[in-house]
Amino acid sequence: MHPLLAQRRSLTAYLSFWAGLSVVPWLLLHSTAELGALLLALICTLAFALVTLPSWYLCRALPLDPGRLGRVVSAQGAAAVVWSLVFLVCWKAFVEVLALVPAWHKLPGDIDAAEPALLGVGALFYVLVATFHYMLSELELRRDAIEREGALALNAQRAELQALRAQVHPHFLFNSLNTVNALIGYDTAKARAACVLLADYLRGTLGAQEHALVPLSEEWALCERYLSVETLRLGERLKVDVELEEDARTCLVPSLLLQPLVENAMTHGIARVDEPAPLRVRARRHAARLLIELENGIDPLPRRRPGGVGLANVRARLVAHYGSDAVLRIERDPAHFRVVLDVPARAPETKDVG
Asked: pLDDT below 50 — which residues of the chain?
């Protein structure tokens, strides 16, 4: 289908343009029946504008390729001759109808006298039609190219996010298996319970990976499954103080975003301290922003551990999801390590698919 036929507003603008051009053949007629000549020029010009719409397909079949320019010029030149004859036929057909009005009975003679001029106008009008269609075709090609680039960029972003989410699992499994290994040495029952909890957690992560964004309440529920594994190892040393405001719970966050932060708190802070401070988690919504804060005690004698990917993974995923519209801020004092996330507060109806 011709693009103009699918857009009523564009078709109206197109016909309005040609209505304005009808003044050109009207002036060439030099007819004494000015009103009849103007009406005839308007009818014939608009009819020509409509019947030449199929030339859109010829222009698409013969793009302006420098290597085929001679073929394009010859084909379009022949088309201009044909359509100029069609233009003249339109005038002769419609003038017979208008000549039935007594005041306009001289119009057929005026048309006969202006035949060469009308043929020239018809050829010129076809050149305008072809030029318009080539411009329209170029715009469509550019729009298609932009859409393809957008689709490729979106697919690349989704692939990046999937890779970043997948990175969480080996890191988590490494630490969790170390937990199970430690439990086997002194409490096999707890080790078996840890395996069951670990399986339950992994089932939850499979569901979370189906969505780019999940409600904060679901994201934290997954973190609680992870903490239940750590509780078997740390016992009463692990204390969690959670405060998620109700309007923050429904906000959407990237799936598996908090788990690396909670795991960092366990691995680099709470598990290393004999009497650790509680893991504090706070979330609140402030206008159009969602603020999430995680705070944990730290080892007073920090030791560097290789292979940490948690904060880098979270930072990369925030950039992939929000660009520059998200902030990850790290605050540290001698006794505490704090991570603050400041992201757009998205409601469930704006949930992304990916």
From this structure: 306-308, 350-354
What is the domain range of residue 331? Answer: 187-350
Alpha helices in the chain (DSSP H): 8-21, 23-29, 34-51, 55-61, 69-98, 107-113, 115-186, 188-208, 216-234, 246-249, 258-268, 310-322
By the 8 A CB rule, do 208 and 181 touch? no
Does residue 298 contact residue 269 with C-beta atoms inside 8 Å?
yes
263-274 b/e with 16+ CB inside 10 Å = b? Answer: bbbbbbbbbbee
Question: Using only C-alpha atoms, what is the Rg of the chain?
Answer: 37
Instruction: Classify residue 173: in a domain, yes or no.
Output: no
Q: Does residue 156 belong to any structural domain of this protein?
A: no
Supply the pLDDT for residue 151.
Answer: 66
From the centroid of its chain, how far is CA 7? 23
Q: pTM for this structure?
A: 0.52
